[in-house]
Amino acid sequence: MIAAPRLHLSKADRRNLRTAAPFILPWVIGFFAFTLYPIVYSLYLSFTSYSGFGNATPVGFANYQHLASDPLFFKSLWNTLYYTGLAVPIGLVVAIVLALAMNQKVREVAIYRAAIYLPSILPLFALTFIFIVLLNPRFGFVNYLLSLVGVPTINWLGDPKWTKFSVVLLAQLGAGGPALIFLAALRAVPGELYESASLDGAGALRRFRHITLPLITPVILYDLIYGTILGVQIFTPAFILVGGTSGGAAYTAGPDNSLLFYVFYLYKEAFQYSDMGIASAMAWILFLISVVLSVIIMRWSRFWVHYEVS
Amino acid sequence: MSLLSWRGWKASLVFVSVVLAACGGGNQSAAPLAGCNSGTTLATFWTSHTPPDSDSLKHIVDAFNKQSTATCVKMVQVPGSETDIAKLTTAVRSGTGPDVYMLDRFTVAERAAAGVLEDLSQYGAQDLASNYVDFAWAEATFKGKPYALPFDTDTRAMYYRKDLLQAAGITDLSALDPANGPPTIDTVRAMANKVNHKTGGAYDVVGFIPWINQGWHYTWGFVYGGSFFDKSGCKVTPNDPKIVQAYTDMFTNWSKSLGVDAVQTFISSYSPPNQPTQQDPFLTGHLGFVISGDWVLGQIATYTPNLKYGVTYIPVPKKGDQPATWAGGWSDVIPKNAKNAKGGYEFMKYIAGEPGQRVYTKETQHTPTIKSLQSDSSLFPGDHQFFIKQLSAAHSRPPLPVGAFYWDQLSTAQDAAVRNTAAPQAALDAAATATNAKLQPFCPLA
C-alpha cells in the first residue's frame, strides 16, 4: 500500500495559502452550496413526491416505478440516444474536417477561421429560427438545393422520421468550438513526421490515416466523451422549435413527440407538471446513463487512443 | 496564529465589498417609478404576454399607477406560456418572485394544488365572486377557495374567407350565415374540398384543416357532446365515445382524406413553428376555413383590414345539433412569498376589475369576465357581438390539478390521430390511464 505523501509547506507557502484562501473560498462555498448540495438533495427528492413547494412526501421507489411504466419516458430516452448516436460521430467528422480546413497554409486562413467559428458564438435561439426558414419544405433553401439533384420534398420539421436529423444538422453549426480544439491538436503534430513520411512516398490520405489520426486520438476521445455528455442533455433546439405555443397553447414536442428529448421531458415534469420528484429521478437516471456511456467509451478507447508520441 | 494574515483579510474585505457593490441596488429600492404617486410602495407584476396584448396591459398599469396613492406597479415581461411557469416557480422558490402574476386560468387549480399560489380568502376575494361569470370564477378556485381573480375570456368560432370560397365557385354562402344556425360538418367539407388547390403536386391552398389553430381536442370533443371529466368518480374521461368519434371524424378521417403527408407538408410550409401572426395561413389566403377565437378580429384589423371574411358557428355533426364552443382566458394571482401582496391585491382588483377589463376589451377585442361589462354593447363592435352571444352557452375546460398534463396527453392522442399512427380509441385510452394515475392523489377534489 502506498502512503499518501505528506504535504511539506514552507513558511512562505503557508503565508501564500492564507492569502489565497479568501479568494478561493467563494468558489469552494459555491461548489458546496450550488453544485454538491443540489446533487445530493435531488437524490433525496427522487424518492419523494414534491411540487417544489411545501413539504416533500417520501414515496420510496414510486417515482422510479412510475417511469418504468411511462411510455413517454422510454420515448424520450430513445429520442435522446438516437440523437446522440447520430450527432456525436457526425459532429466529430465535421469538426475534424473544419480543423483540417482551418489548418491550411493559405493567406486568408484567418478569415476562414473566423467565418467557420462565427456560428458557434451566435445565440442558438437565432440559429434555430434561421434553420426553421432554411428547412421549410416548400420555400426552404435546403429543399431547393436537394430538388436540383432530384430529391423529393422532405418535411424536415413536420415528419417524425426527419426531425431528429434536422436537430443533428443544426448542431453542426456549433462545430466551430470542437474544431478549434482539433486545430490545436493538429498543430501539435510534429512536422518532421510528415516530412519523413512524404520522403518515403506517403500521399496526403496515407499521412492523415497513419500520422494525423493516431496523434489526435486523445482529442477525439475527449470530444467523444464531451459530445456524448452534451448530447444526452440536448434541450435548447427542441425547446425553441416546439416548446413555444401553437395557436394559443402548447402542443406536442414535435410530430409524434419525436423531439421530446430526455431533458425536455424532465423540464416538463418539473416546471409544467410540478413534479420535482419524478424530475429528480429522471436526472439521476440520466446521470447513471452518462456514467455508463463514458465508462464504455473509456474502455473502448484503450484499443485506439495513442498517448505514446509526444 | 491567526487563520488569515492581515493582508488576506484586507483583500477579502475589498473583494466582498466589490461583490456587494456589484450585486446591490436590485430590488431593494422602494422608490416609486416614474408615473407613480409619491409615498407609494412598489409591487411587481409579471406577465408572459407579448404585443399587442402586453401593450394593453402596460396601459392598464400606467392608468393604475396614476390613480393609486398606496401602490406603484412595475410590469415585467417574462418567458413562459400557458402551461410553462418555470421562471415563476424558480423565482418564487428563491424569494425573488413577483407580487402579481398573469396565469392561464385553467391551470389555477394545478398551481394552487402545487402550493405556488396564495389563498386570496385572506383579502376577502370571495366577496367578488358575484361580479364574475360563473365558469370563470369556478376556474379561479380550488377546493372552494379563491386563488385568482379572473381576467379576460374568449370564445371560438369558425372564420371563412369569402374571396377563396367565391374563387372556388361557391356563390351561395347562406349555409354559413349564423342566422341559419350552425352549418353541418358535411356542408363545410363539401365547400372546403372545392377550395383545395395544389401546385406541383403539393397543396398551396387547403379548404379546411380542423385541427389547425383552435381546432383542439377540447373544441371537437365539446362539439360532439363529449364529457372530459367525471366529477363524481374523480376521473378524466377522454375516451368518452363521443370524444372518440370526434377524433375519428375530425382528425383521423379528415387527415386521411386530405393525405396525411400532404397536409403535414402544407402545415410545415405555411404554418411553421413560431410563425409571426401576420404570416398566418388564413390571413395570407392559404386556408379557406379556420377555427379560432375573438382575438383574431383584432389581428385582422391590424394586418389585413381589407380581408373579405365571415364568422359563423363551429360546424356540428348533424343538422339541428346545438352549436358548441369553449371559453378560456387568463387570471391574476399572488404567488407565494410575495413581498407586497397587499399592494399586489389592490392592483389585481383594478386590472381584473371593471377599469382594467374595459381597457383590455377595447384594445385587444378579448372578452371580459366581469358580468357588468358583458352587457355593455359599446365594447363589442361588429363581429365581436357574435362571440359574446356564444359565451352564455360556452363550455370550459375542467379545472383540474393535472390540467396541463391532461392537455398534453390529449394533444399526444390528437397528434397520433392526425398522423394515423394510432386508433383514436387506443390513443385516448392511454391518455385516460396516464392522466388518472396523476390525478388520483388529489381526489376527492371537492
Q: Shape of chain B, please?
A: globular
Strand order of the largest sheet of chain A: 1-2
| Mean residue pLDDT of chain B | 91
Oligomer: heterodimer
The span between the termini of chain A is 31 Å
Name the CATH class of chain A: Mainly Alpha
Provide the domain count of chain A: 1
Strand order of the largest sheet of chain B: 2-1-3-15-6
The average pLDDT of chain A is: 90
Keywords:
heterodimer, A: 310 residues, mainly alpha, MetI-like fold, two-stranded antiparallel ribbon, 14 helices, 2 strands, B: 446 residues, alpha+beta, D-Maltodextrin-Binding Protein, domain 2, 2 domains, five-stranded mixed sheet, 17 helices, 16 strands
Description of the structure:
The complex is a heterodimer of chains A (310) and B (446). Helix content of chain A is 68%, strand content 1%. Chain A is an all-alpha fold. Chain A has one domain: Orthogonal Bundle (MetI-like fold). A two-stranded antiparallel sheet of chain A has the order 1-2. In chain A, strand 1 and strand 2 form a beta hairpin. The longest helix of chain A has 35 residues, at 11-45. Chain A is globular, with a radius of gyration of 24 Å. The model of chain A is unreliable at 245-250 (pLDDT under 50). Chain B is α+β, with helices and mostly antiparallel strands and 446 residues long. The N and C termini of chain B lie far apart (67 Å). The chains are: A mainly alpha (310), B alpha+beta (446). The interface between A and B is large, with 54 and 62 residues.
Brief synopsis:
The complex is a heterodimer of chains A (310) and B (446). With 310 residues, chain A is mainly α.
